[in-house]
Design goal:
By secondary structure, the protein is α+β, with helices and mostly antiparallel strands. It has one domain: Roll (Thiol Ester Dehydrase, Chain A). It is 20% helix and 36% strand. It is built from two helices and six strands; from the N terminus they run βαβββββα. Strands 1, 2, 3, 4, 5 and 6 form a six-stranded antiparallel β-sheet that branches. The longest helix has 18 residues. The N and C termini lie close together (12 Å).
């Protein structure tokens, strides 16, 4: 399993209520995906050949995150289909689950500008990190 991504909450992330604004959480997920995919696929992965794109995000906000906290985001492969796969996320603050989220990704061929079946080499890598 890949180590959780640690987020530094910035002052700009905070809303008038003093906690991280709900829209900022999606930026945290994006940063986590970049970190996670580099660890899982490596820096040399050719996204033009074996690419994918985000088609859905969903999030359950369980407790707020505040400025001086350090969220840790666990990311994992939750589901693998024929053309799509789902990443799951758990945001932990001080050993407590504060947010759960999912992102659905679709395998994509850039030159054809269309969805494709998940390439076998990507499927094998995703299956290696499938949460059971």
């Amino acid at each position: 399993m890949i180590a959780p991504f640690e987020v530094q909450v910035r002052f700009v992330d905070i809303d008038l209520l003093g906690h991280v604004n709900n829209a900022v959480y999606f930026s945290y997920l994006e940063m986590t995906r970049v970190y996670y995919l580099e660890k899982l696929l490596g820096e040399q992965w050719d996204y033009t050949q074996d690419g994918f794109l985000l088609v859905r995000n969903e999030m359950d906000y369980l407790k707020p995150i505040f400025l001086y906290q350090t969220p840790k985001i666990r990311m994992f492969v939750e589901h693998i289909g024929r053309r799509s796969f789902t990443f799951g996320y758990e945001i932990i603050v001080e050993n407590e689950l504060v947010t759960k989220a999912k992102s659905v990704m679709v395998a994509w061929n850039i030159s054809k500008n269309s969805a494709i079946e998940i390439p076998e080499r990507l499927r094998v890598i995703l299956e290696s990190d499938l949460k059971k």
